[in-house]
Amino acid sequence: MDVTTMFLCKEHNSDFGHERFFAIIGNVIISPIAGIIAEATSPIPGGKNYEGGLYLFVAMTTVLFVIIYKLPVRVVPPGEKMFKKSLKLIKNIDVVMFFIVIFILGTTWNFSKYFLFWYLEELQAPGLLIGMVTSVSALYGLPFLLTAKWWIKKLVPTE
């Protein structure tokens, strides 16, 4: 979805940060609702039935695909000599180190993201709390997304 969003932002001269804002707001709202649904639909008191949350996810994903299907997005052909250009990038030690750092950061982020919920389940945390963890972790990026253009102008020198 981010690639489509980036393409449409470029096409309509929009700000990517402002468009991502709505995705994060959706995450902040829907995650606690899914947690509440998991507790409310459980036949065992204190248990969690994630079936309702899964159905909510499937329904919202279906609506999303219908909307995206109707969007007028052009498919841009790939660039010329991409393999040759990729080899040039791989020969640069700064680029290789950047890839390694991003790989390590992604691994640790995914580890904490996925195992955190198992840990909270072991602690018998309520469904609302599990949903709120996702919501609160999404909130930290909002100020940056709304001011991204200003930060980029300050940090990236223009020639």
UniProtKB/TrEMBL annotation:
List UniProt keywords, sorted A-Z. Membrane, Transmembrane, Transmembrane helix
Superkingdom in the source lineage: Eukaryota
Q: What Gene3D superfamilies does this protein's entry cite? A: MFS general substrate transporter like domains
Write out the annotated subcellular location: Membrane
Chain ranges passing through the membrane: 21-40, 52-71, 92-111, 123-146
Q: Where is the Major facilitator superfamily associated domain?
A: 1-155
Q: Which InterPro entries does the record associate with it?
A: MFS_assoc_dom, MFS_MFSD6, MFS_trans_sf
Query: What Pfam families does the record point to?
Result: MFS_1_like
What does the record say about its membrane topology?
Answer: Multi-pass membrane protein
A GO cellular component annotation in the UniProt record: membrane
Family of the protein in this entry: Belongs to the major facilitator superfamily. MFSD6 family.
- Name used for this protein in its record: MFS_1_like domain-containing protein
- Give the originating organism: Caerostris extrusa
**Gene designation per UniProt:** AVEN_26006_1
